[in-house]
# Entry
Amino acid sequence: MSGLEFWYEFGSTYSYPAAMRIERLAKKRGVEVRWRPFLLGPIFQTQGWNDSPFNIFAAKGRYMWRDLARICEAEGLPLKLPPAKFPQNGLKAARLALAGEKEGWTPAFTRAVFTANYAGQKDISEDATLRAILDALGVDVEAALAAANTPENKDALRRQTRLRRAAYSARRPSPSGTSCSGATTGWKRHSIGLRPIDLTTGPHVYDSDCC
# Structure
């Protein structure tokens, strides 16, 4: 089966509709998705930003929220604004998502965290929110938290963030997106959501305008 890497940040608005659709669409085309959480904060710092550009540049932010609402309406995705915070601190969630890869609950956990953020107005940095999500998925909460907080897992997230930062510096797309290798069909975030595109000239990193 061909492979696709999906890079995402839990505080990223456009990562939400992408995360909710990508696995279903990939499966239809025989493409396996590897979920790759990372942190945007260190990448923003290289640009001299201490906040999301959607907050720094007000006009950009106003457009983004209207655009996100249009996308979610078109895709039938729940959206309740404003979120509890913007941007949210996704560090704990990202560590958990990375820790869940071996046991296979990363996709479901990722979708649940995004839903809690953008449809439930929950603070996804709070332990109570993350514990409730893990418990609802039938995951051993204490074991998951322990695995997420090992030095090895923390280092793995730092490495993924450095990889994404290096890719961003080299290509200058928006930091979040999909990276595909060996696949023949993938998806790019457009104003109407995700649509099939040719990946025969891969590997690619696709701009998903995620900040």
